[in-house]
Amino acid sequence: MSNATPSALAPTIRPEEAAHFGKLAQDWWDPKGSSAMLHRLNPVRLGFIRNAIDSHFGTSPRSLKPLTDRRALDVGCGAGLLCEPLARMGAAVTGVDAAAENVAAAQAHAAGGGLAITYRLGEIGALDLAGFDLVTAMEVIEHVADKPAFVAALAAALGEGGLMVLSTPNRTAAARLLLVEGAETLGMVPRGTHHWDDFVTPVELHDLLSEAGLVMGNPIGIAYSPTKGLHLSDNLALNYIVTARKG
After folding, report:
1. Tens digit of each residue's pLDDT (9 = 90 or more) over 90-107
2. Contact (CB, 8 A) for 243 and 163
3. Class of residue 13 by CB neighbours under 10 A (exposed 0-12, middle 13-18, buried 19+)
4. How many Cα atoms occupy the beta-carbon half-sphere of 39 within 13 Å?
């Protein structure tokens, strides 16, 4: 288990990554725009997250607000695509992002929907965030400069008895072919979004979480087929999503 404290952690934000995603901010909520793939991916991730919430906290699958009286933190929140449904589930939500453009877009969209969500700009390890019941980081770890520091900061933000959920592309030949070369060439995601060498395998993520004092659940794949589209699967070749908790 790491003894590092958030204040001692190395910076995790890559300025070039923040700039890349900041340029997409105004288009983030357009389901046919540059973030169209995220709009297709979000319902799949939400289905996993909802099941994980009910399993971890013992809430009823029929409840519309399973996160009532709980605090949720979404790290690398972009323009709030996950923050808003978490708020509708009853959580007091904080979103953190490295791009000022994303934070501004997220604040404007939440205000337009009448949602009280707190958005913060900057480095998670420097924002003094702690005691959250739910911590999420969706498709973020592959973009950070120091992965152990980033995971340690996530762990520091997670309260006792809390739940963490992460998703990320797997570093496989299939992911290189379809997510990097295929999706970017076909314009399904903006060029420069993915860097295959930075993808994290499930074994590597397990070790990163363990070093931060967290126990990882069984990874579930997010796969694609022409008939089902994006869906949860036993196939981890492209992308996967996991839970974690304090050991």
Report:
1. 999 999 998 899 999 999
2. yes
3. buried
4. 12
Identify the CA nearest to 120 among candidates 102, 145, 147, 139.
102
Beta bridge partner(s), residue 96: 75, 120
What domains can be seen in the chain, in order of their start residue?
Answer: 6-168+206-246 (3.40.50.150)
CA distances from 164 to 161, 196, 244 (A): 10, 24, 5
Structure tokens at 200: 């994290």
Lowest-confidence region among 24-38, 175-189, 198-212, 226-240 = 175-189
Residue showing tokens 């939400």: 46
Q: What is the C-alpha to C-alpha distance for residues 230 and 106, in angstroms, rounded to an integer?
A: 25
Spatial distance between the Cα atoms of 86 and 197, rounded to a whole number of angstroms: 31
What phi and psi, each to the nearest 5 degrees, are found at residue 139? 55, 50
DSSP string, 116-145: --EEEES-GGGS----EEEEEEES-GGG-S
How crowded is residue 47: how many other Cβ atoms within 10 Å of its Cβ? 13
Strands (E) located in the chain: 71-75, 92-97, 118-121, 132-138, 158-169, 214-216, 220-225, 229-233, 239-246
User: pTM, whole model, 2 decimals?
Assistant: 0.87
Q: Residue 74 carries which side chain, given as an amino acid letter?
A: D
- Tokens encoding 81: 């695509």
Q: Among residues 27, 1, 26, 244, which one has the least CA distance to residue 137?
A: 244
